[in-house]
Write a structure and sequence with these properties.
2 domains, about 230 residues, about 0% strand, mainly alpha, globular, Serine Threonine Protein Phosphatase 5, Tetratricopeptide repeat
Length: about 230
């Protein structure tokens, strides 16, 4: 592939637009992260985003390899926290806990970091993996009215094998209005609920992905991006 005149940071920015932090279209984002890394192999955030792109596409082994590259220059709280989530999803609970402990030793996740899986919810999922369900059950018992609360309820209910609760939370999230819903054309939102779409992309829902209600939510919230539409 012949490289054009764009620099790595520009390619990364284009890839980030399609990442699961924004539009949730990893097929469109992957080539840009790859191009960014060809131009500058030291862009650790491009390695991280490539790893998350692989993960939401079901390629978790490649995701871990990308995170290893992102972390090859030293500890990084966001990179470690995301690699922990990928390891958790693969059933490597020991690896997830080790990465999370290493992340904690470096500080807190920056407020600017965006993520479909709330950081506090990750801790609840890891505690569940160790057999401690107290925090998860508290999440289910508490009222859920905000987007982060509904996302947490869906993820925790799924981990506790309560599919009806998880689906109900996802449907409530879909129905929740978002004053900051991104536009892909004048006065035209990219999706009926991009935050729901991004959460549905996360490969933690297992058997729920075969539920017709889950599939309808995916069909309903799938982004419609005019510049990617084939004539």
């Amino acid at each position: 592939m012949e490289l054009d005149s764009l620099d790595g940071d520009t390619e990364h920015a284009i890839g980030y637009l399609y990442s699961n932090d924004i539009l949730g279209l990893p097929d469109a984002g992957e080539p840009h992260f790859r191009r960014a890394l060809q131009l500058n192999p030291d862009l650790r955030n491009s390695w991280r985003q490539l790893g998350m792109t692989y993960w939401v596409r079901g390629r978790s082994a490649e995701a871990l390899a990308a995170f290893d590259s992102a972390l090859s220059h030293g500890g990084w709280v966001v990179g470690l926290a995301d690699r922990a989530l990928v390891r958790y999803s693969r059933g490597d609970f020991g690896g997830a806990l080790a990465d999370q402990a290493a992340a904690d030793s470096l500080g807190t996740i920056p407020l600017s970091a965006t993520m479909a899986v709330p950081f506090v919810t990750r801790r609840q999922l890891y505690a569940l993996a160790k057999g401690d369900s107290a925090a998860a059950l508290q999440t289910l018992a508490a009222p859920a009215t905000t987007a982060s609360q509904l996302a947490a309820r869906a993820l925790v209910a799924n981990a506790l094998r309560q599919p009806e609760v998880a689906i109900a939370a996802l449907q409530q999230l879909r129905a929740l209005s978002d004053a900051n819903e991104p536009l892909c054309a004048p006065r035209t939102p990219c999706s009926t609920s991009l935050r729901t779409w991004r959460l549905l992309n996360v490969p933690l829902f297992g058997a729920l992905q075969n539920d017709p209600r889950f599939q309808r939510l995916r069909d309903d919230t799938r982004p419609r991006v005019p510049w990617l539409t084939t004539p």
